Design the sequence.
């Protein structure tokens, strides 16, 4: 199992506020990493770093051995808790958008045979996430769970090296959440994804992840609480991916 | 249909008042009866003017609508181009933002003398007044709407491989369009104000010109129908824009697809 993403001595500081300090981390290809931790412990900053939305103040981040450019790019897909889908496009066109951007830099639109090919691929992906019958609905006509399914399909159609999930199921009710857990586990296995998921739900973190990282501050100065940043305080390997993929068809304790 | 009731009440009230004034003074000009209004308007609608040979009512309507249409059209193009750039590109906002704000806070009528001096008394100055009056507001509305798009959407588009240009044309522009139609609807009112003002001050044809011309003769029998006609035109435009928005951008109008 090769190292896909590695962080070396990474610090994130805003002015004199230290958010993340001395974070060393290697993430293997094919891992499902859950990130937990209290609010304000740098979970979102960590995600922004990997997303390329911001650069570390110090330290290096390597993706496939090459330094990560601090820009969002198609090699890292993302699903946010909300606003991940485009309200003005139908599910199908939401999913095609990624392919259109790559193939038509000027117009951002595809025509003819290229469009049909993209449509077929998008339709296959939508079917894979369970939206085969809802391809022509707009996001406003979909439930929260369907919108998250769409956001996942949208990201996966680009075949990202890493899929980042930012509390993806936080806004869903428990029954739907269990369905989504089964879906993401299935996709993770079928597409050999590497997933980093930030969550507030500890049960979710342990059920889904092959590795659970807890971010928190190791030290605390009561007179200057902002001077110490968070780092990985627990790094728990959950189970082996090989064992897991050999295992029977998803008998997960998904009772919420 | 319930909304027609107050209008009907007002109409009846007007006729009652006009009738009572005419009972006291048959030559009253302030509240003309519908009959005399119809007579005066028929002359303007059907009989060519002796001086110009034109059907004045239609010439006025055409001239005013043309000015309004060109003014609104230019403003709309400016709003979408500058508004998108201001909203989506922070460097553009830093450079042009204060200028747009500056123009927006100047009362347009105060600029009318400048426009007349710089552009002459012709059509250009009138159209320019409409543009100066409504474009800054529309630009700022679109810019604010684009800037308020959720950050997550922009990031998501970038992770799908979209360049800044693609984010603008595939994410920001389509979502600004329904807002643009709403901005046009809201700008119609001010646009009419500036049109009538410009026509009142310097013109030889137009709905505003006619109203201010016949005011000298206390011709309420022409003024009132003209005002009603302006109201009808404005309502038709408003409804048209709203229907267009619902047809073209159903996703922007809630669940009713």
Sequence:
């Amino acid at each position: 199992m090769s190292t896909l993403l590695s962080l070396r001595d990474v610090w994130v500081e805003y002015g004199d506020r230290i958010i993340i300090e001395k974070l060393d981390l290697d993430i293997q290809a094919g891992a499902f990493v859950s990130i937990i931790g209290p609010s304000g412990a740098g979970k979102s900053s960590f995600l922004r770093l990997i997303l390329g939305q911001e650069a570390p103040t110090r330290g290096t981040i390597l993706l496939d051995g090459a330094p990560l450019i601090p820009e969002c790019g198609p090699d890292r897909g993302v699903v946010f808790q909300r606003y991940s889908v485009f309200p003005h496009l139908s599910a199908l066109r939401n999913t095609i958008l990624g392919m259109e951007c790559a193939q038509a830099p000027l117009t951002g639109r595809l025509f003819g045979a290229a469009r049909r090919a993209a449509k077929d691929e998008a339709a296959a992906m939508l079917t894979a996430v369970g939206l085969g019958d809802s391809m022509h609905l707009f996001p406003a006509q979909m439930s929260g769970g369907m919108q998250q399914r769409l956001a996942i399909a949208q990201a996966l159609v680009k075949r990202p090296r890493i899929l980042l999930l930012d509390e993806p199921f936080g806004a869903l009710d428990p029954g739907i959440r269990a369905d989504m857990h089964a879906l993401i586990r299935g996709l993770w296995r079928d597409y050999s994804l590497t997933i980093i998921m930030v969550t507030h739900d500890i049960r979710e973190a342990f059920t889904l992840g092959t590795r659970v990282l807890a971010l928190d501050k190791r030290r605390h100065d009561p007179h200057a609480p902002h001077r110490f940043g968070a780092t990985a305080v627990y790094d728990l390997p959950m189970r082996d991916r090989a064992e897991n993929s050999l295992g029977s068809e998803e008998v997960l304790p998904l009772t919420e | 249909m319930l909304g027609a009731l107050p209008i009907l009440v007002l109409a009846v009230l007007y006729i009652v008042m006009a009738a009572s004034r005419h009972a006291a003074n048959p030559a009253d000009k302030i509240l003309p009866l519908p009959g005399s209004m119809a007579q005066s308007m028929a002359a303007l609608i059907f009989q060519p003017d002796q001086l110009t040979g034109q059907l004045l009512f239609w010439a006025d309507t055409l001239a005013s609508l043309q000015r309004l249409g060109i003014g609104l059209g230019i403003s709309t193009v400016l709003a979408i181009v500058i508004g998108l750039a201001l909203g989506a590109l922070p460097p553009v906002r830093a450079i042009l933002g204060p200028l747009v704000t500056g123009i927006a806070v100047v009362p347009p009528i105060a600029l009318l003398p400048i426009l007349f001096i710089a552009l002459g008394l012709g059509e250009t100055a009138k159209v320019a007044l409409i543009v100066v009056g409504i474009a800054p507001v529309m630009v700022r509305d679109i810019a604010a709407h684009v800037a308020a798009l959720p950050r997550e959407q922009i990031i998501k588009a970038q992770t799908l491989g979209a360049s800044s240009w693609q984010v603008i044309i595939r994410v920001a522009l389509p979502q600004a369009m329904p807002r643009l139609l709403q901005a046009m609807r809201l700008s119609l009112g001010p646009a009419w104000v500036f049109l009538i003002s410009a026509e009142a001050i310097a013109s030889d044809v137009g709905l505003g010109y006619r109203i201010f011309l016949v005011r000298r003769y206390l011709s309420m029998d022409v003024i009132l129908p003209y005002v009603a006609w302006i109201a009808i035109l404005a309502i038709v435009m408003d409804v048209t824009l709203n229907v267009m928005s619902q047809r073209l951008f159903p996703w922007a109008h809630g669940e009713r697809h």
Notes: The helical segments of chain A are 43-51, 91-103, 112-128, 144-156, 174-190, 202-208, 241-246.
